[in-house]
Amino acid sequence: MKGLLRFADGTQFEGTLIGDTEKIAAGEVVFNTAMTGYQEILTDPSYYGQIVVLTYPLIGNYGTFAEAAESLFPWAEAVIVKDYARIPSHFGGAESFDSYLKRYHKVGLAGVDTRELTLYIRSAGTQHAVLASADTPASVLEEAMAAIDLSKSVYAVTTPEPYHVEHEGPHVVVIDYGAKNSIMEQLGVRGMSVTVVPCTITPTELDGYHPDGVVLSNGPGDPSLFTDLLPTVKHCVDHYPTLGICLGHQLIGLAEGAHTYPLKFGHHGANHPLMDHKTGKVLITSQNHGYAVEAAPLLDRYQIRLTNLHDQTVEGFQHREKPVLTVQHHPEAGPGPWDSHYLFDEFLTMVREGREAQHA
Ligand SMILES: NC(=O)CC[C@H](N)C(=O)O
């Protein structure tokens, strides 16, 4: 069935619909340049409300399977590919890309020149668009476009109830703005007990868990719209060893007096180079963000820890005295390189030192 992607400015790309062909998808269009990891990308809750263009030209070779999921189901609104494998090959037995999309009622557009589409997004910038069957009436497309509302996205993806995974080590609370499974895994493999809580948690409720440390997770949407989350974020950085990842990093920036701004077309991929100013080493990192922090207002209290080597944007900062570390990229990877797993080791050290100081 013929399908189309129509941008807010009227620009249109055509292709063949795959997955749930009845669906009309509407959202912000972003491109991701990772060569593998399509299932992790679609199940990353930070893609809620977004139509994802995968620039690698053949998607689905190794199918889809439970272990690759970063959350319970795919959150991206829709996916766009050049070509996809009809018959996957995987030692564990795997479901095909098309069947996976159908099962989760997600629509895709295949046969698109994703290079041309990506060049268009790079020159026009991030925009809203609708993706649907080519015979959808214009009024229906307009209605779908007008209904796009990304202002409440974190509330749509956060866990409805707290849950706990016990290990022998310190107790860490993860505030879930749309947390990826790999974050909880990286804490767990270092022995940390993890309680994942809804993003609406209040400072008093958080204290009730007696955490040794707090992780503020990744998540979808424009960070500047989530002002009601900031009192808890401020409470964390003032009272607990805190690690902020992506949206968590941006919220710490906002709670500490900095501001955020939209990037022209964002960073979404698995090979972005960063400089770690503490170690003097370059890291190749997994990235997925459309906003960045303008950190100047907090530099009296924080040092820039990481800088993006493509565009020099701030990719992380660290408090000069307190145990607070933030990263704009994804040290948990999923998908992506493991170069920055050591930042979880640093967090564990911060948490242990905090606990020892408390019990001394
Ligand atoms: N992965 C994330 O946490 C993304 C953060 C934020 N929604 C952004 O796009 O910048």
Automatic annotation (TrEMBL):
Keyword Amino-acid biosynthesis: yes
InterPro entries: Anth_synth/Amidotransfase (IPR050472), CarbamoylP_synth_ssu (IPR006274), CarbamoylP_synth_ssu_N (IPR002474), CarbP_synth_ssu_N_sf (IPR036480), Class_I_gatase-like (IPR029062), CPSase_GATase1 (IPR035686), GATASE (IPR017926)
Residues that coordinate or bind L-glutamine: S46, G219, G221, L247, Q250, N288, G290, Y291
Broad class of enzyme this protein falls into: ligase
Pathway involvement of the protein, from the record: Pyrimidine metabolism; UMP biosynthesis via de novo pathway; (S)-dihydroorotate from bicarbonate: step 1/3; Amino-acid biosynthesis; L-arginine biosynthesis; carbamoyl phosphate from bicarbonate: step 1/1
EC number in record: 6.3.5.5
Cross-referenced Pfam families: CPSase_sm_chain, GATase
Catalytically driven reaction(s): hydrogencarbonate + L-glutamine + 2 ATP + H2O = carbamoyl phosphate + L-glutamate + 2 ADP + phosphate + 2 H(+); L-glutamine + H2O = L-glutamate + NH4(+)
Record domain Carbamoyl-phosphate synthase small subunit N-terminal: where: 1-132
Family label: Belongs to the CarA family.
Role noted for this protein: Small subunit of the glutamine-dependent carbamoyl phosphate synthetase (CPSase). CPSase catalyzes the formation of carbamoyl phosphate from the ammonia moiety of glutamine, carbonate, and phosphate donated by ATP, constituting the first step of 2 biosynthetic pathways, one leading to arginine and/or urea and the other to pyrimidine nucleotides. The small subunit (glutamine amidotransferase) binds and cleaves glutamine to supply the large subunit with the substrate ammonia.
HAMAP family in the cross-refs: CPSase_S_chain
Subunit (UniProt): Composed of two chains; the small (or glutamine) chain promotes the hydrolysis of glutamine to ammonia, which is used by the large (or ammonia) chain to synthesize carbamoyl phosphate. Tetramer of heterodimers (alpha,beta)4.
Protein name as annotated: Carbamoyl phosphate synthase small chain
Organism of this sequence: Sulfobacillus thermotolerans
Gene for this chain: carA
